[in-house]
Amino acid sequence: MTTAPAGSPRADTLLCPEWVLPMTDDGPFCQRGWAVALAEGNIAALGPADALKARWPQATRVSLPKQALLPGFVNAHGHAAMSLFRGFADDMPLGPWLEDRIWPLEGRYVSPEFVADGTALAAAEMLRGGTTTFSDMYFFPEVAASVALRAGLRAQLCCPLIQFPTAWASGPEEGFRKTLELRDQYRDHDRIQVAFGPHSSYALSPEHMARVATLAEELDLPVQIHLQETAAEVEEALKTHGERPIASLERYGLLSPRLQAVHLTQVSDADLDRLQRFNVAVVHCPQSNLKLASGFAPVARFLKAGLRVALGTDGAASNNALSMLRELQVAALLAKAVAQDATALPAQAALRMATRGGAEVLGLDHRLGRLEAGYEADLVAISLGGLEAQPVYHPEAQLAYSVGDAAVRHCWVGGKAVLKDGALTTLDPDALTRSAARWQHRMGAA
Fold it and tell me: Mind giving me the DSSP string for 179-218?
C-alpha cells in the first residue's frame, strides 16, 4: 500500500474498481480489491479498499464494478488533425502515399480551421479509447494546444520543421521562431509541453538539424523525428550522405536522451549500439508500419538493450484508428512473430509501453504513467465484464488481447472526469460528426 506524502490534503474521491494495475516497480502487477484515493487532482494513496474507506470516510466513492483501473494511455506519436484524411488514401506505399496524395491534399486544405476541427475529432476518439496524453506533430501546433486544453487532454506538441514552405511556416527559419514563441507561451504549463519536430533526416538540411540539436540542448526541449522508417529511406541516405540516418544524427549532435525516434523499422547492429550509447527513446507505431508496409521494428531487441520504448498510433490517415488498446494488442502479437519468440512482448510489457513507457519517452515519468502517491491522477477504467473478456484469469491478458475501446468506461486527467460512463464530458460528438461531414464534402467535391 502506498500512502499519501506528509502534509498532503485529505482525499476527496475514492475510486473503487475490481482490479488496480499500478505500473509501479514494487508489488504485484495487478491488485484485486484495492482502491485509489484522489486529492486535488493527484493520487493521494492506493491500497486495500477497506483501509482507504476507513481512513477517508467522507470521500466521495466511485464504484467501478468489473473494471480495471490503470494509468491513462500515452499516445506517443501522431498527427491528430489528419483524422480528417481518414480513409482518403488507403492501401498505398509510403512514398506515393505522401507525395501523390497526402502532401498535395495538405497544401490545399490545411489551415487553422482544419487543424482545430481535425484535432478535436482526434481528441474525442483518443479520450473514448483511454488516452489521456498524446504527442502531436503537425502544422498550427498553437491551435492543437488550444483544442487539447478544451478537451482536457495533456499534449506534447512537436512543432514541424521542414525545409520547404508549408501552410504554417515559410521555411525552417519561421518554423524555429514560431516554435520558440510557443515554447515561451507554455513554458510553465502543466498540460502542454512543446518540442522540436524535424520531420525526418531527409526533410531538413544538415545545418538546420544541427541547429535543432543546439537549441534542444540549451533549452532542454524534446525532439521527435521520423527515423529510418523504410528501407528506401536508408538506401537514399547511403547514396546521398554515405551513411545511415542515425549516423548522420550523431554528427549533427541530435542523438541524446531528449531524442524520440519514431518508427525505426530498419535497425542494424551499429544503429542499435548508437541508440543504446546515447539513450535515445523509441516510439513504436506497429499498425501504421504494417499498413504502409514500412517494415518491422525489432521491439524485443530495443527492450533487451534497455531502451525506453513507447507506443504511438501515428495519424488516422495511415492507421485509420487512434486506439491505444488496438496498438498495444498488435504490438504484443507482432513482436512475437518478428522475434520468433512467444515470450518477446508479454501482455504486461505491452501495457507498460502504452502507459508508463509513454511517460518515460516524453520525459514525464516523474509525474505520469504510474498509480503512485503524489502522481497526477490521469487514469482509465476499462470494463472486463463483457462476454469477450470471460473468464478473467489475468486482467492484463484481457486488456492486451481481448477487449476494445468500447470497454473503456471512464477517463480522468488531473482528477477531472473527461469520460464518464463512456460519454465525453468536454466535447460534443454530434458537433464533431457534423464538422467531419463538412470537411468530407469539401474534400470529396474537390
Answer: HHHHHHHTTT-SSEEEEEEE-BTTSS-HHHHHHHHHHHHH
Give me the numbers of helices (H) and strands (E) for the chain, helices first please: 18, 17
Cα 385 to chain centroid, rounded: 27
Decide the pairing of beta strands 379-383 and 60-71.
Answer: antiparallel
Cβ neighbour number for residue 14 with a 10 Å cutoff: 24
Taking alpha carbons only, the member of 73, 1, 71 closest to residue 35 is 1
Q: Minimal CA–CA distance to 396: which of 332, 308, 323?
A: 332
**First CA to last CA distance, the chain:** 59
Q: Name the grid cell of 401.
A: 488481447
Let me know: does 419 contact 408? Beta carbons within 8 Å. Answer: yes
Buried-state track 22-58, b at ≥16 Cβ within 10 A, e below 16:
bbbeeeeebbeebbbbbbebbbbbbbebeebeebbee
pLDDT in tens, the chain (446 residues): 555 544 556 899 999 999 999 999 988 999 999 999 999 999 999 999 999 999 999 999 999 999 999 999 999 999 999 999 999 888 888 788 888 888 888 989 999 999 999 999 999 999 999 999 999 999 999 999 999 999 999 999 999 999 999 999 999 999 999 999 999 999 999 999 999 999 999 999 999 999 999 999 999 999 999 999 999 999 999 999 999 999 999 999 999 999 999 999 999 999 999 999 999 999 999 999 999 999 999 999 999 999 999 999 999 999 999 999 999 999 999 999 999 999 999 999 999 999 999 999 999 999 999 999 999 999 999 999 999 999 999 999 999 999 999 999 999 999 999 999 999 999 999 999 999 999 999 988 55
Contacts of residue 99, defined as CB under 8 A and 6 or more positions apart, other chains included, come to none
pTM listed for this prediction: 0.97
Cis-peptide, bond into residue 391, ω within 30° of zero: yes
Q: Which of 285, 17, 254, 301 is nearest to 135 (CA)?
A: 285
Q: What angle do CA 366, 74, 342 make, to 5 degrees?
A: 105
3-class secondary structure, 17: strand
Report the Cα 289 to chain-centroid distance in Å.
16
- Work out the burial of residue 146: count CB atoms within 10 Å of its CB; fewer than 13 is exposed, 13-18 middle, 19 or more buried: middle
